[in-house]
Amino acid sequence: xxxxxxxxxxxxxxxxxxxxxxxxxxxxxxxxxxxxxxxxxxxxxxxxxxxxxxxxxxxxxxxxxxxxxxxxxxxxxxxxxxxxxxxxxxxxxxxxxxxxxxxxxxxxxxxxxxxxxxxxxxxxxxxxxxxxxxxxxxxxxxxxxxxxxxxxxxxxxxxxxxxxxxxxxxxxxxxxxxxxxxxxxxxxxxxxxxxxxxxxxxxxxxxxxxxxxxxxxxxxxxxxxxxxxxxxxxxxxxxxxxxxxxxxxxxxxxxxxxxxxxxxxxxxxxxxxxxxxxxxxxxxxxxxxxxxxxxxxxxxxxxxxxxxxxxxxxxxxxxxxxxxxxxxxxxxxxxxxxxxxxxxxxxxxxxxxxxxxxxxxxxxxxxxxxxxxxxxxxxxxxxxxxxxxxxxxxxxxxxxxxxxxxxxxxxxxxxxxxxxxxxxxxxxxxxxxxxxxxxxxxxxxxxxxxxxxxxxxxxxxxxxxxxxxxxxxxxxxxxxxxxxxxxxxxxxxxxxxxxxxxxxxxxxxxxxxxxxxxx
Length: 519
Hints:
Elements: H1 5-14, E1 18-22, E2 25-28, H2 29-45, E3 53-57, H3 62-73, E4 77-80, H4 87-96, E5 101-105, H5 109-116, E6 124-128, E7 136-137, H6 138-143, E8 160-165, E9 175-179, H7 180-191, E10 202-205, H8 217-222, E11 226-229, H9 235-245, E12 249-252, H10 254-262, E13 276-279, H11 286-296, E14 300-304, E15 314-316, H12 318-326, E16 338-339, E17 344-348, E18 361-366, E19 373-374, H13 378-384, E20 385-386, E21 389-398, E22 404-409, E23 414-416, E24 419-421, H14 423-430, E25 436-446, E26 450-459, H15 467-477, E27 486-489, H16 503-511
Parallel strand pairs: 1-11, 3-4, 3-5, 4-8, 5-6, 6-7, 10-11, 10-12, 12-13, 13-14, 26-27
Antiparallel strand pairs: 1-2, 8-9, 9-19, 14-15, 15-16, 17-18, 18-21, 20-21, 21-22, 23-24, 25-26
């Protein structure tokens, strides 16, 4: 069994029902299964053997599913790459994974070809939406392959299924190796908590399938739901798609939630079909989340996880959102929900001792949902996994209310005047200011304090705010050591291809040329 099983099973149960809708049209589960078979057989015809790597740089389109799960069905390892990454980085990762075949959008091919001159190029390139010198055109590649189910590749549940590269916010991306069992457990764990998908459900994929949105492909396929793929983050296009296709579920990152809340366009579209807004990928402002729940209703679900430990490690349900909204303090809106009942997740101190309620420590986990290790990086694996426990890199606590609260990334902690300051806590406090749209906090060099808490604030559209006003506000909502000593008002914040704020890029200019990055 491999994770393509969910689509072959769905084809048997819901063969004539629409599986995917994108700019090219609608495709049934039976059509998708046949095209997956052609991918698997086509790769084998190129000489690939089970375990060989197949990479994809693909947008939100039905071919993403065919290439990924077709490769898995043939016993090959799929390497998931981000369409928003620089061609040079993707070329380097294709070479690092030693991928023998690359599926790529035609528009990326010219730049990628220049980049592969510096790195080991794949033996075969399959191009979608065009052609290129020495490359195979995707539809021709499928037409030459058999539509019959591929021969059993003999890959076990514990065999390597995917290599997922980290987003590289704190250095060079590392390839997390995930087994078929890890993906199977991920799907099972989601289905045990979320509303059971039904054939009349319509799931909208807005954020890249090369990131968190793909987490929902398999769960929704189990219920025969239709999945709509949109290749834009333009707000009106999202609203129009929800209204036209009667979308029932969507996954959004916090930035998109903020934009929907702030947009006057939401009032122009019928969004009554929407029953679930999944969100995750980065911290969300409790204040903005409360605004979203007020605007769209208690239809929000949050999950927590990572490349190395597949979500949901914890799950913040619709009912928990409603309960948190009813609390006078609304403190629960700052949580990541409750730890999954089927998983081992703990909060430990640096000596490995279990922390009590409200005590902060490192969030660790172990089990079948975690990675096998980093591809060709045993040194990094050893740093990440100790005694079977995988360190998420996040600092957190379990509250008296039983919810998991993620304080911050361990690498982002600011030490100011001997106190540990967690940027996320300061950001959540500053986000309560009515004129603050987005905010990021970093530590910058300070001769007296070691590091100065420094905030970068993006005002809400049409509003103005001054740095000293933010500092005065901070004194009323944050501890003294958390109040920013410096506040910069900026037009935008740097973000990576997945939409995560790059604190590193904000911090780097202040520390450039220094031998030590802390004082």
